[in-house]
Amino acid sequence: MADTNNSTANNLEAAFGGESMANRKYLFFADVAKKLGNSELSKLFRETAAQETEHAFAHFRLLYPELDITDPDSLSEEQKKTVLGRCLELAIEGETYEYTTMYPGFEAQARRDLDSQAEAEFAEQTVESKEHAGLFRRAAHNFGLLTPIEHHHADRYNAALQALEGGGAVGLAAEPIAGQWICKVCSMIYDPEAGDPDSGIAPGTPFEAIPDDWVCPICGARKSSFVPYRPVDLNAS
Ligand SMILES: [Fe+2]
Ligand SMILES: [Fe+2]
User: Fold this and answer.
1) Which ligand is nearest to the Cα of residue 93, counting in written order?
2) Residue 226 buriedness (CB in 10 A; 0-12 / 13-18 / 19+)
3) What is residue 222's DSSP assignment?
4) CB atoms within 10 A of CB 50
5) Among the residues of 64-181, which ranges form H helices?
6) Are 126 and 118 in contact (CB under 8 A)?
7) C-alpha 158 – ligand 2 centre gap (Å)
8) Residues 208-233: tens digit of each pLDDT
9) Model pTM?
């Protein structure tokens, strides 16, 4: 952004983050209220969530005025391409940070916390420390699972950017990666080598041998929501 001093730019970033988070939090609460049979409260959370999205968008327009499209018909094809390319670049930047830095760092931290928790548990044997250890283990596992998912997202955006720049069509590899399956809902990739020990699936278990009542460890989708994993093919045409 151009004409605003740095602290206001930082505040806009923070406000965008806060409103974005409020949006997802309220959708989560709406789901809780719905599950508990309170449809009125669920509706209130959903309506407010929609308003938080508008607040977040208002901040984002100020952060990236070049992406604020008010009169699409006035733009040349070249200008449209520039705007879309910028969106893809920002998306790639975010996903790349997540899979190269954020999730690997978070996973390492959760494993360190797990180790120190294990020592405390050994000393105290409290229920609480066992619960904490369980949470840290789950968090480390989820962070580890999310790393290849974000890599997959970055690949998809990279392929779309390449296509936008005239580098062929966005495609998936013709052949799936042997043994790996991907969740259609959240893109979690099941790797038989790793299994899903937290859900009782031992490393080395082929996907076909997993019981039918197993669910995606990230999003809870059923086993039938998985398809053979075909990675993004950056050279598809
Ligand atoms: Fe992502
Ligand atoms: Fe999933």
Assistant:
1) 1
2) buried
3) B
4) 12
5) 77-97, 103-124, 127-164
6) no
7) 22
8) 999 999 999 999 999 999 999 998 88
9) 0.82
